[in-house]
Amino acid sequence: MDIATTVEVRLRRNPPQPPASGGRPAPSAATAFRARCEARALLCAVGELTLDESVDVLQRAAIANGLVSDVGQDAVQSIMASAFRKVRRDV
Fold it and tell me: Are 79 and 34 in contact (CB under 8 A)?
């Protein structure tokens, strides 16, 4: 099992809990997705994942989490492209 799969399995088993009252609010779905894209882009850059498998998993997650319905497919693709563009520029 690769690193990305391990992390996703653990997150499914132990999803992040909302903060206790008075804590910081949970990030928006788009913010969380952006972080996920950046993490997968880094794993792709170091050879842990391929670009195709990274993008496929991210796309499925965006659909499953309702992000495509909320912000639209173009916005989802823009978030993914931005994350992978940053990594390519840094490599």
Answer: yes
Q: How far is CA 82 from CA 19, 34, 37, 78, 88, in A?
A: 29, 9, 9, 6, 10
Give residue-wise pLDDT tens across range 29-72.
899 999 999 999 999 999 999 999 999 999 999 999 999 999 99
Q: What is the pTM of this model?
A: 0.70
Residues 6+ apart with CB under 8 A from 66: 29
> What is each CA distance from 58 to 25, 29, 72, in whole angstroms?
23, 13, 14
Could you say which DSSP state residue 55 is in?
Answer: H
Domains of the chain by residue range: 30-42+49-91
